[in-house]
């Protein structure tokens, strides 16, 4: 009966097709022209081949020259700004889980041209604690990872466990973030990832501390290589 009522309501009040980024009206729910142009303009900028962030010149940003990461490369659809930031907030904080499909497809499109990303063995989402999962009702990174796994035709592997909550990262500076995420993740039981090439998925990369903590656990467990793909990346951390 409920199904029939919902179907009738959809006929009378059809769902509003909107751009998954900015939420404006858009035919078929595709990314609107304004957001498409915004993404294209942002992706014209030169980027660091390691962390994927914008650079003024050269192939590596200063941070990637000065430090080692436990992952090989990181890529994002675009900067954590404008309509992409709106999309993250609508998915993560407003509970619009349906956005994971179009946003995940954008993530797939971002890396399909890179051979490095075609050869992964598993797609691994950044986990949340059980308490946060119960409170929010979903893990946005896993929703995105499921779409990415399907788009790349690779298995989705829930092999990481987050066993303690951390202070919200937005409140911390770089050093505090790294300390905050240290010893946060562990590998699930009876998991063999020896020499596997893993693709780690999250919604946003800021300083890289969360991604690095997770990637470090995977590498210590024997993973051959860890790649990173996020929906958005902060252009610069100050």
Description:
- 39% of the residues lie in helices and 15% in strands.
- The chain has helices at 2-12, 33-43, 62-66, 82-92, 100-111, 115-118, 130-136, 140-152, 174-181, 209-220, and strands spanning 73-79, 122-125, 160-162, 185-187, 197-205, 225-233.
- α5 packs across α8.
- It has a four-stranded parallel sheet, sandwiched between helices. The chain has a two-stranded antiparallel sheet with strand order 3-4.
- It is of the alpha/beta class.
- Mean pLDDT is 86; it is low at 5-14.
H/E series, N to C?
A: HHHEHHHEHHEHEEHE
Q: Return the domain count.
A: 1
In the sheet with the most strands, the strands line up as: 1-6-5-2
Number of strands: 6
CATH overall fold name: Rossmann fold
The CATH level-2 architecture is identified as 3-Layer(aba) Sandwich
The largest β sheet comes out as: 4 strands, parallel
Uncertain stretches: 5-14
Q: What class, by secondary structure content?
A: alpha/beta
Outline: globular
**Overall mean confidence score, pLDDT:** 86
Q: What is the oligomeric state here?
A: single chain
Helix content: 25-40%
User: CATH top level?
Assistant: Alpha Beta
Strand content: 5-15%
In whole angstroms, the N-to-C terminal distance is 55 Å
Total of helices: 10
Taking all Cα atoms into account, the compactness measure Rg is 18 Å
Write the layout of secondary structure elements.
Blueprint: H1 2-12, H2 33-43, H3 62-66, E1 73-79, H4 82-92, H5 100-111, H6 115-118, E2 122-125, H7 130-136, H8 140-152, E3 160-162, H9 174-181, E4 185-187, E5 197-205, H10 209-220, E6 225-233
Parallel strand pairs: 1-6, 2-5, 5-6
Antiparallel strand pairs: 3-4
Helix pairs in contact: 5-8
